[in-house]
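Hello again, I could really use a second opinion on something today. I've been staring at a protein lately and its backbone has me curious. Please have a think about how the structure follows from the sequence. I owe you a coffee for this, so here goes:
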Amino acid sequence: MKKRIYIDGMSCSNCVSHVKEALLDIGASKVKVILEEKYATAEFDDEVTDNDITDALEEVGYEVTEVEED
């Protein structure tokens, strides 16, 4: 399932790398992070919940403001 994740706290290309890595670590594929618009899109297995996504990104220092199906 494809998700769009809105993320506060990203400000540079290192942030993009951290977000991408955190999402890949929980099983995401086709991850795309749009720094200027402060969101990421990715595909997840059905077992990955919105809480899993939020927890993974908060662990690396970012705030998830919304997760929606894309």
